[in-house]
Specification:
Largest sheet: 9 strands, antiparallel
Structural class: alpha+beta
Strand content: 15-25%
Mean pLDDT: 95
Number of helices: 19
Low-confidence stretches: 1-19
Oligomer: single chain
Radius of gyration: 27 Å
Length: 792
């Protein structure tokens, strides 16, 4: 049966390009730096492929390549009594004293925190035997089959290379071919290794052992084994020092793997066995198996915007957008690239969720103040904004397992640091269970960081309707975080509202009596996240019909939370009090979580607050020197989409792709902002920017489904299929001259759906049964899984 399925999928993939333009990024020159190379991966291990003709560089890495170690001393014994004392300072208006106390006492111990780090590079130096010029060079990454390819001609010989990372086999494969026998010769070695790495040659393979320690930062880290096995057809292979010399081969297969001892004590055996197992199979068979595994997931979604420009090199198109050109087709490719990056970074069985750079580590972020870790004040969350709307719900599972790990560690932080039950986590985390506040109060004192992560648990249910998942996975974790929040909340003696604090609006500060402070009681982000978690839990108790007394407690707490309010500048308040907004150009707009990804503010139900949210966005984005980084611009796209500002959303798409991405379309945080000494690759902009584009095409947050709610004039023609909405359904649509020609909704879960009738649609039906909209243009229908609503 498995072979039948693989054959079917292979045939589907072969036919697919005939009916749809190939989804591909391609270039006419090799990559001369890391940010031009192309990624292949399988959710655990991957390569960055440079594609050089005289020298090929393959940057290998793996998701658990982490320095650091568990730190049982991370939590300071602050406790409930000290928490009451510091809160009284804030209630008494002693903001200065409260911030001083927080800065001294409300920080954890970051010893051995660690970072994700790179392994290094395998380098192939080629020998051709002649000096003919290179012609017909082409380097590409096919999103259709997740294969990087290189092809060129030298003299009368054609050379090709293929690279992919097999999820079924859990190894990386490469095949080098030439049109002439005996034409492949190269030296294979390693460069840029970890400080303690050791290289050996065994049975035509290069093996590298070592640790991920970062001398000067932490002497601890995972231990690893990397292997690249060379299998040559024809020719010879011999060893010279720590290099392998391949001469006069007809074809060469490279098999690579990298394993660590992170939760895998027998990692060396596993690594060697994976190579050995793959070596028994033909490359063509492994490729078909790879496509059968990957293609059905990727091809769930199609997207076409504007004129097909795939005949132009991707870097040339990128440069044109950078200079002000419009290229909706490149924007569509960017969305699919975001889905591709999600798929290759976070499969169901991935050992870890997507970190700051995924696991495509540029060796820069891990050597600066940030670390390449898990930032819980926007970055890690944005990495998963795309997965549900982009029809990749399974890709969330590594995140949920990580939240489970965080909850176990965060229970000790809740108890020791705050004297509370449940669990919490703050701004930064790692793979070693760090949940304490870190660094300084300006960014570390964020006790609802774990709450923000936990909201993804409810979002998954919104899109899938999976009650078993809700009962067994989501609710226990949500309940634990709600328990912390209920214990952590206290009553403000002045207003009677329940408030959190002292805590921060991440990385920002406010003005009060001529001074700048970070910590306060109940910043708006805490309010939004508290309301989300308590309300999510309340809905869980109703759906699962459990915990009636806990539900009553949740209702009472929700009733006593303060409302969202408008500040003296006409925007949404970022803090409970109407403090001075002294960092108008600041990158963080954490108070706008209420607009996106949540929907406590909508243009339909809370128009005044929506207008205030728009004023907040505009005040930041138009400020002189706005800290325009990849994630803040991607969030702006999402916010503009929710605010129904099509042209602002479209221009922000161009800004993200043209100014905050590089030739390989990886998004970057620019030098000079947030202490970055270089332009830093950060993967969140890829996922969140793609999510923002989808939000322009279909929305389902306001209690109904709306198709093409925010269509810019530049997207006047297009189509999509397979985008997901809340309630459990996939939506497809086609349009011309900005008018929908037909659309459909297919239920992936039994449920009731409300649709806003799109303009231009005159007929709506389920099978032969016609549906009639109400006076507001809404259609409500009950669907069984697999049933389809057609609109035309």
């Amino acid at each position: 049966m498995k072979k039948i399925v693989q054959t079917f999928v292979g045939l589907y993939f072969l036919v697919c390009p005939l009916v749809s333009a190939a989804q591909e990024m391609w270039y006419g020159t090799p990559a001369d730096e890391w940010m031009k190379s192309l990624p292949v991966a399988n959710g655990r291990v991957g390569l960055m492929v440079f594609g050089g003709t005289t020298q090929e560089r393959l940057s290998l890495n793996e998701s658990s390549m982490w320095s650091g170690a568990p730190n049982p001393q991370q939590n300071r014994s602050f406790g409930a009594e000290r928490l009451r004392e510091i809160r009284q300072l804030f209630f008494d208006g002693k903001i200065d004293e409260g911030n001083q106390m927080a800065g001294k006492e409300m920080i954890g111990n970051e010893a051995d925190f660690g970072s994700h780090v790179p392994f290094g590079d395998f380098v192939l130096t080629f020998h051709y035997g002649n000096s003919s010029a290179i012609s017909d060079y082409r380097r590409s990454l096919s999103l259709d089959d997740a294969v990087a390819r290189v092809s060129y001609r030298m003299g009368d010989t054609d050379y090709t290379r293929e690279y992919f990372s097999s999820h079924p086999r859990d190894v990386i494969l490469a095949r080098y071919q030439a049109s002439r026998k005996g034409a492949i010769s190269f030296d294979l070695g390693v460069e840029n290794l970890r400080p303690d790495a050791k290289v050996s040659i065994v049975n035509n393979s290069i093996r590298v052992t070592g640790s991920a320690a970062q001398p000067g930062r932490t002497e601890h880290g995972v231990h690893f084994l990397a292997v690249m096995q060379v299998i040559a057809k024809g020719g010879t292979i011999h060893q010279e020092g720590d290099r392998l010399m391949v001469r006069d081969a007809d074809e060469v297969i490279l098999l690579s793997d990298l394993r660590t001892d992170y939760r895998t004590p027998n990692y060396q055996d596993v690594c060697l066995q994976s190579i050995q197992n793959a070596a028994k199979r033909k490359f063509s068979s492994l490729y078909r198996e790879h496509v059968a595994d990957y293609a059905p997931l990727y091809h769930r979604v199609t997207l076409h915007l504007g004129k097909d420009k795939s005949d132009l090199a991707t870097d040339e198109r990128w440069k044109a957008v950078k200079q002000g050109a419009d290229d909706p087709d490149l924007q569509a490719l960017f969305v699919q690239y975001g889905r591709y990056l999600t798929l290759i970074s976070s499969r169901q069985d991935s050992p870890l969720p997507i970190a700051l750079q995924g696991f495509f580590n540029d060796n820069l972020a891990c050597n600066m103040g940030w670390n390449s870790d898990y930032h819980l004040d926007i970055n890690t969350e944005q990495n998963y904004w795309l997965s549900n709307v982009g029809n990749l719900a399974e890709c969330n599972e590594p995140l949920f397992r990580y939240i489970g790990d965080m909850a176990r560690a965060g229970a000790e932080t809740a108890r020791t640091f705050y004297g509370c039950g449940g669990w919490t986590a703050h701004c930064t985390s790692n793979v070693w269970g760090f949940t304490a506040p870190a660094g300084c109060t300006a960014w570390g004192l964020f006790p609802t960081g774990g709450s923000w992560m936990a909201t993804h648990l409810w979002t998954q249910y919104e899109f899938t309707g999976d009650v078993a998942y809700l009962r067994n996975t989501a609710y226990p974790l949500l309940r634990g975080n709600a328990r912390f929040l209920l214990d952590y909340l206290c009553e403000d003696p002045h207003s009677g509202y329940l408030v959190t604090g002292p805590s921060i609006s991440p990385e920002n500060s406010f003005g009060w009596k001529g001074q700048s402070f970070g910590a306060s009681m109940m910043p708006t982000i805490d309010l939004v996240l508290t309301r989300e978690i308590l309300n999510d839990c309340l809905q869980c108790t109703r759906i699962l019909n459990i915990d009636p007394e806990f539900a009553d407690t949740l209702r009472m707490a929700l009733d006593k939370l303060p409302p969202l309010r408008i500040n003296k500048y006409g925007g949404l308040r970022e803090w409970m009090e109407d403090y001075d907004d002294i960092n108008v150009n600041h990158r963080h707009t954490s108070h706008l979580l209420c607009l996106y990804p949540f929907y406590q503010v909508t243009t339909r139900h809370t128009p005044e607050l929506a207008e205030a949210a728009y004023q907040s966005v505009q005040r930041r984005l138009t400020a002189e020197g706005w800290e325009d980084v990849e994630w803040s611009r991607a969030w702006a796209i999402c916010n503009y989409a929710r605010l129904r500002r099509s042209e602002e959303a479209y221009q922000s798409q161009n800004q993200l792709i043209g100014s905050l991405s590089r030739e390989n379309l990886f998004t970057v945080s620019p030098k000079g902002i947030a202490g970055a000494p270089w332009d830093i690759f950060v993967i969140d902009g890829n996922m969140a920017g793609a999510a923002g584009a989808i939000e322009m095409l279909v929305q389902s947050h306001a209690g109904y489904i709306e198709i093409l709610p925010v269509l810019p004039k530049e997207w006047s023609e297009g189509s999509f299929s397979g985008l997901c909405v809340r309630g459990g359904a996939e939506v497809s649509a086609s349009w011309e001259h900005s008018q929908i020609t037909h659309a459909q909704l297919r239920a992936t879960h039994d449920g009731t759906f409300t649709l806003l009738l799109p303009k231009g649609i005159s007929k709506v039906s389920i099978g032969r049964r016609a549906l009639t909209p109400n006076a507001e243009g809404m259609i409500q229908c009950h669907l069984k899984r697999g049933e389809v609503v057609k609109m035309y």
